[in-house]
Amino acid sequence: MDFFNYRQTKLFAEECAVEDIAAQFGTPCYVYSRATLERHWRAFDDAFKGYPHLICYAVKANSNLAVLNVLARLGSGFDIVSVGEMRRVLAAGGAPEKIVFSGVGKREDEIRAALQVGIRCFNVEVSGELDRINRLAGELGVIAPVSFRVNPDVDAKTHPYISTGLKENKFGIDIQSAIHEYRRAAQMPNIKIVGIDCHIGSQLTETAPFLDAMDRVLALVDQLQGEGISLRHLDLGGGLGICYRDEQPPLPADYVSALLDKLGDRGFEIMLEPGRAIVGNAGVLLTKVEYLKLTAGKNFAIVDAAMNDLVRPSLYGAWQAIIPADTNSNAEPLTWDIVGPVCETGDFLGKNRELKITPGDLLAVRSAGAYGFTMSSNYNSRPRPAEVMVDGAQVHLIRERESIEQLWAGEKLLPV
Ligand SMILES: Cc1ncc(COP(=O)(O)O)c(C=O)c1O
Ligand SMILES: N[C@@H](CCCC[NH3+])C(=O)O
């Protein structure tokens, strides 16, 4: 069954009984579509039309083992930012030699673990990390494959919290200093330079900033080649946006073809690290209306999902569509703030939404497959929701709802 479209035109196919999912697994509950996940991954992969490439799905967007496993079966690579994500990829059947390790603050134990499993490369983000990797590789008697994540100082024209390629952002090595780091790396005994990387931000809806970043990266690549430092791959990061409301981001095929045009006949393998574009519109958060509260100033629909389950609206003021998931309500349409039970005024999933709702109705928060569950928390001692995957006619539980007891696992009373 395939019930989410890349540009989000359709939610559920008629056969998909949302009520049954809610009855069987409870609410709130994340629901993903295997078919959509696969289609979105393939949209990137097919766009290269045989040109050497590797799609390294950004695990942070959705790290459920079943999601990773579906992508691993397609042959996906993975972009990780912690040893926790690395362990998940391996547990889900991902290949170590297709893992790239990004992140500004890699700890020694994380670098050691990644060297031991033999990942594809480290995307080095700070000068001291290079020395650390060289030393740890020497101790382990291995050669570390390294790429530098450069910060090209390009405005991604996205939300300031998710813009990463400006010089005031903490990410990457300033593109002016990168040549110096490459020269240092070329002299190090336990380092092998394999590539260059940049990632300028998330939820980009235009191609131009990617191309600006690529211009700057290619200028550096040409300079490096002039010095005899050759690279095998060029990693252009993730960041392609999706349609939450009325955005019109480029489709993967158009985006990739623009990148390949810019690349010209330089013969690099291209890597991309898409997260949101693969999984964002492959998931919804199902929630049930608990109460309706009509006040003089506002109508509140109080639902059983909250900011701890899906924090994007509270954190970024992000707009995500909220639609009735069972359509039988004969209530009058009214304008509602959809709020959760958490004790924060900022606990909302959507504001000023015109909907026909009665208590007990099911609502679906759309585009919730990326940065939904992975950013969830236990705030207010709320167990995190179940996750299920629709796969053809079947619905599989891929993560159980947390139990209350799990919430204090590992906590200890004082001895006296
Ligand atoms: C290094 C890196 N790669 C890939 C991604 C994935 O980004 P997106 O989900 O926007 O594709 C991110 C997140 O912004 C990132 O920081
Ligand atoms: N968590 C952000 C994206 C961050 C991307 C990670 N660098 C969001 O939900 O939009």
UniProtKB/TrEMBL annotation:
Belongs to the Orn/Lys/Arg decarboxylase class-II family. LysA subfamily. NCBIfam families: lysA (TIGR01048). This is Diaminopimelate decarboxylase. The keyword Amino-acid biosynthesis applies. Its cofactor is pyridoxal 5'-phosphate. Specifically catalyzes the decarboxylation of meso-diaminopimelate (meso-DAP) to L-lysine. Its EC number is 4.1.1.20. It is an enzyme of class 4 (lyase). Residues 29-369 form the Orn/DAP/Arg decarboxylase 2 C-terminal domain. Pyridoxal 5'-phosphate binds at residues 239, 273-276, 371. GO terms for molecular function: diaminopimelate decarboxylase activity. Pathway: Amino-acid biosynthesis; L-lysine biosynthesis via DAP pathway; L-lysine from DL-2,6-diaminopimelate: step 1/1. The modification N6-(pyridoxal phosphate)lysine is found at residue 60. Gene3D superfamilies: Alanine racemase, Lyase, Ornithine Decarboxylase, Chain A, domain 1. Keywords: Amino-acid biosynthesis, Decarboxylase, Lyase, Lysine biosynthesis, Pyridoxal phosphate. The keyword Mitochondrion does not apply. It catalyses: meso-2,6-diaminopimelate + H(+) = L-lysine + CO2. Substrate binds at residues 276, 312, 316, 344, 371. It comes from the Bacteria. Homodimer. Residues 35-280 form the Orn/DAP/Arg decarboxylase 2 N-terminal domain.
